């Protein structure tokens, strides 16, 4: 007979087994049900860096709590770009049970048959996902994905170092900030900064558009200190760099370390994205992966993750919770009148994608 952990059951009794291990126990109130039928098995989770509450500063350690509830061991690995994640999934060296890519990459993975379908009727917490985040362009029938977080890209700057700056992507090209600016070290986001400045469609199928954006990136390269991904934290928090395009949620994280940082959505527009939970086709432990997905949707867990990573949440239990640290935050949840012009990335025709990836290599070598 299945051992079921009851609805709203707190985990206080399990705390006893952790005495002396140094972990600050957090009581949870679970709204779902969880079996221990898969205790002793393992799942491998592949997620972005700094993208899950890990117990720091007394917060909930999500993976640790899942292990306590289900007895399933979590092997947790991280990536820093969709392209890195894609190459690892395609390589097949590691069989992942959970991955959390962005919208356009999900479209590509679905097209290439790399994802399994997810029966959302078996996720008791799926009803907590806001309707506006269901049936999106990359998964119109909600067959392969469960939304995890939502974000937009903007520009972070150190007011103490550079004062107030123009509300434009053009600051990355402004020579007065030479050697103080950064840009993304991945092609899709880096091209976006130039495409927006040039007034392009981010999903253009015109090679001339991509060529013009590449030339714009080359033009601005002399201005850059470096291309970065997660390194942006250290550079912006310490003042080593003064201006960087990055994700809004990460700005809020950096602001806690450096109060001199400021943020804006450029007037030309920006990228909006939805990162979603998926199960790869070669997952070894799908049933356990389904438990993990449902656990991530738990109000306590989803709130802890939203507070830790600083991104907007698609989970209504988070959004509508006045105790949520970022409740009605104007950067994550701007009013309609303050909403920037936005575009999603879509999976692009293979020929165009190969073309812009080739251009990106040229930009980096320029």
Topology (SSEs and partners):
Blueprint (H helix, E strand, L loop, with lengths): L3 E2 L6 H4 L18 E2 L6 E7 L13 H9 L2 E7 L2 H10 L6 E2 L3 H9 L34 E13 H4 L18 E4 L2 H11 L9 H15 L2 E5 L3 H7 L4 E5 H10 L3 E4 L5 E8 L8 H11 L2 H11 L6 H4 L22 E2 L6 H16 L1
Parallel strand pairs: 3-4, 3-5, 7-8, 11-12
Antiparallel strand pairs: 1-2, 6-9, 6-10, 6-11
Helix pairs in contact: 6-7, 7-13
- Oligomer class: single chain
What is the CA-CA span between the terminal residues?
64 Å
| Share of β-strand residues | 15-25%
Overall shape: it is: globular
CATH class of the largest domain: Alpha Beta
Extended strand count: 12
Task: Report on the biggest sheet.
Answer: 5 strands, mixed
Approximately how much helix is present in the residues? 25-40%
Please name the fourth-level CATH homologous superfamily of the largest domain: Periplasmic binding protein-like II
Alpha-beta content class: alpha/beta
Mean pLDDT across all amino acids: 92
Give the topology string: H per helix, E per strand: EHEEHEHEHEHEHHEHEHEEHHHEH
**Rg result:** 21 Å
Note poorly predicted spans.
1-25
Structurally, the number of domains stands at 2
Q: Total number of helical segments? A: 13
> Architecture of the largest domain, according to CATH?
3-Layer(aba) Sandwich
Per the CATH scheme, the topology name of the largest domain is: D-Maltodextrin-Binding Protein, domain 2
């Amino acid at each position: 007979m299945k051992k079921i952990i009851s609805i709203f059951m707190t985990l206080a009794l399990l705390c006893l087994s952790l005495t002396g291990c140094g972990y600050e126990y957090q009581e949870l109130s679970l709204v779902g049900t969880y079996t221990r039928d898969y205790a002793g098995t393992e799942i491998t989770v592949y997620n972005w860096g700094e993208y899950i509450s890990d117990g720091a500063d007394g917060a909930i350690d999500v993976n640790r709590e899942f292990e306590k509830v289900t007895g399933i061991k979590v092997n947790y690995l991280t990536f820093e770009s969709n392209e890195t994640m894609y190459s690892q999934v395609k390589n097949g060296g590691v069989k992942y049970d959970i991955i959390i890519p962005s919208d356009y990459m999900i479209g590509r993975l679905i097209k290439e048959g790399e994802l399994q379908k997810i029966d959302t009727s078996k996720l008791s917490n799926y009803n907590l996902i806001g309707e506006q985040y269901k049936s999106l362009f990359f998964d119109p029938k909600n067959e392969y994905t469960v939304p995890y977080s939502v974000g937009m890209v903007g520009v972070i700057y150190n007011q103490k170092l550079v004062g107030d700056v123009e509300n434009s992507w053009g600051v990355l090209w402004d020579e007065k900030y030479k050697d103080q600016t950064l840009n993304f070290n991945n092609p899709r986001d880096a091209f976006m900064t130039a495409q927006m400045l040039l007034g392009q469609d981010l999903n253009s199928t015109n090679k001339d558009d991509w060529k013009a954006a590449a030339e714009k990136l080359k033009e601005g390269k002399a201005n850059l200190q470096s291309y970065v991904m997660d390194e942006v934290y250290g550079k912006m928090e310490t003042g080593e760099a003064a201006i960087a395009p990055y994700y809004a949620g990460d700005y809020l994280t950096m602001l806690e370390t450096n109060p001199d940082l400021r943020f804006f959505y450029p007037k030309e527009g920006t990228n909006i994205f939805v990162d979603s939970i998926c199960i790869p086709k070669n997952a070894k432990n799908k049933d356990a992966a389904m438990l993990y997905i449902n656990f991530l949707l738990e109000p306590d867990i989803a709130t802890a993750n939203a507070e830790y990573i600083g991104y907007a949440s698609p989970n209504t239990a988070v959004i509508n919770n006045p105790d949520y640290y970022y409740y009605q935050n104007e950067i994550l949840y701007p009013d309609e009148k303050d909403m920037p012009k936005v575009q999603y990335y879509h999976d692009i025709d293979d020929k165009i994608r190969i073309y812009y990836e080739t251009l990106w290599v040229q930009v980096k070598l320029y």
